[in-house]
Design goal:
By secondary structure, the protein is an alpha+beta fold. Helix content is 17%, strand content 40%. Strands 1-6-2-3-4-5 form a six-stranded antiparallel sheet.
Length: 78
């Protein structure tokens, strides 16, 4: 089975993936790395707000809400 990459913002509720790249710059990149969002980390989409933005993700045992524009810069592999 071939691995499939996609932006984190497209991950369906309940789906899990592995972070394969961070395509972000500056402070947001640093903040996400500080909370454990690094290459190789497992992440699961828990829920999305009714409008779809933001979404809640389980990262390293913590629930983190990310805006769609920030989650778009995180590439995950399923």
């Amino acid at each position: 089975m071939e691995a499939r990459t996609q932006p984190l913002c497209t991950l369906a509720e309940g789906a899990e993936a592995t972070v394969s790249a961070l395509m972000l710059d500056g402070m947001i990149r640093r903040r996400l790395q500080d909370i454990g969002l690094i290459v190789g980390a497992r992440i699961r989409c828990l829920y999305r707000s009714p409008s779809g933005d933001p979404a809640a993700y389980l990262i390293c045992g913590a629930v983190i809400a990310l805006r769609r524009q920030d989650a778009a810069g995180v590439i995950v592999e399923r």
